[in-house]
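Subject: Sanity check before I submit

Could someone independently write out the structure tokens for this chain? I want to compare against mine line by line before I put it in a report. The sequence has 171 residues.
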Amino acid sequence: MAKKNKDGKKTKTIKKKDQAEYTLADLSPALTQAARSMRTTITRNLGDSGLYAGQDGVILALAEEDGLPAGGLANKLGVKAPTITRTIGRMEAQGFVERRTDAEDARLTKVYLTETGRNTVERINASIQACDALATRGFSEKEIRTAVRLLKAIDSNLLAGSPEEYIQSDE
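---
Independent answer below. Compare away.
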């Protein structure tokens, strides 16, 4: 329903029935579903590149800092060492990355992008940008900045805190 403001411009009014009443209990399911939807969309956009879910993050991390040890890559991506080891093995077989012994410390193996891996960076970034545009369709620049600020604050809180202190006990 459109209405005119004091300057004579049309404004959109939201009907009361269109306004959902959300509570704190809706936060985790909504964030989880939104993250899944974004991951699915990015993966679908990269489908014909040969990349699987999560491999784009490995490539982008190595594009930013090539030659990371597997443990450093796992920390950077927030995954466990066995997960990154399997991912690196699969990506090595696909030709996206290669493992090399460190020149200064032969006990250390580092992961590097191959030419094929480097060639996918632009495609990954384009896929992410397309997903972002789709996800924020109809949002103002201010709403996008607010959403990003709030998501970063949520992430920071979760990394710094302990959920146990917020769990109510029956005692």
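---
OP: Matches mine. For the report I'm noting this point. The helical segments are 27-45, 55-64, 70-77, 81-94, 115-119, 121-135, 141-160.
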